[in-house]
From TrEMBL:
Pfam families: Acetyltransf_3. Residues 15-177 form the N-acetyltransferase domain. InterPro entries: Acyl_CoA_acyltransferase, GNAT_dom, Ribosomal_N-acetyltransferase. PANTHER family: ACETYLTRANSFERASE, RIBOSOMAL-PROTEIN-SERINE ACETYLTRANSFERASE. It comes from Streptomyces nojiriensis. It comes from the Bacteria. This is N-acetyltransferase.
């Protein structure tokens, strides 16, 4: 299995069903913080449902679709990034992210997203990478801005989360824009 250095003490790697135990322990530590805006912690409520979630993403990864990557800090799983959608045929994908609170504020997600975007554009010839975040999720919107993405607009009350309909901002970056950012 490959893993990629994000920092001296941090690595990212494909998150698979066999990582269910550490994934569940990580979600337990971060459940409240991560679950504020993200739906999957509510679907990983015990070890079996955590394993089923990872197995589902491993299966779609096998079909070149959605996939999960973990981030370990000093050997402990503290968060991750994902392609919630990955449509190589159309040249479009979306990136998402999460961290447990103690791992925030170090740039880990920004660096992991840079790896995913390099992969999407550089290796897979994608044209467009999207970012969807609740309008109130300022930390997530700051990551999109830090990555050089452009805010495109708002899907009004499109996301029902924990009984509340939230607005979702859509941001994106195109292949040529990423190349210009990288060369600058
Ligand atoms: C969204 C989320 C992952 C952002 O976490 P984050 O720690 O702010 O993001 P990063 O890991 O990229 O770190 C950026 C922060 O580290 C700081 N930082 C330190 N070193 C850095 C570096 N080398 N590079 C970039 N940023 C660095 C930045 O200044 C920034 O801090 P600030 O917001 O106080 O200015 C986190 O808030 C989270 O998990 N929220 C709950 C789940 C969620 O909402 N997921 C997104 C759904 S759309």
């Amino acid at each position: 299995m490959f893993s990629i250095d994000l920092a001296e003490d941090a690595r990212m790697f494909p998150l698979e069903a066999r990582h269910a135990q550490e994934f569940f322990e990580h979600i337990e530590r971060g459940r409240e913080f991560i679950g504020q805006y993200v739906g999957f912690p509510d679907r990983a409520t015990d070890l079996d449902s955590a394993r089923a979630l990872l197995a589902k993403y491993a299966a779609t990864a096998g079909e070149d679709g959605a996939r999960f990557f973990g981030i370990r800090l000093d050997g402990t799983l503290v968060g991750g990034v994902l392609f919630p959608t990955f449509e190589a045929h159309y040249g479009n994908c979306e990136i998402g992210c999460w961290l447990e609170p103690d791992a925030a504020g170090r740039g880990l997600v920004t660096k992991a997203c840079q790896v995913l975007i390099d992969y999407a554009f550089g290796e897979r010839g994608m044209h467009r990478v999207e970012w969807h975040a609740a309008s109130g999720n300022k930390k997530s919107l700051a990551v999109a801005a830090r990555l050089g993405m452009t805010r495109e607009g708002v899907m009004r009350e499109n996301y029902l989360h924990r009984g509340v309909r939230q607005d979702t901002e859509v941001w994106s970056i195109l292949s040529r824009e990423w190349a210009a950012t990288r060369s600058a």
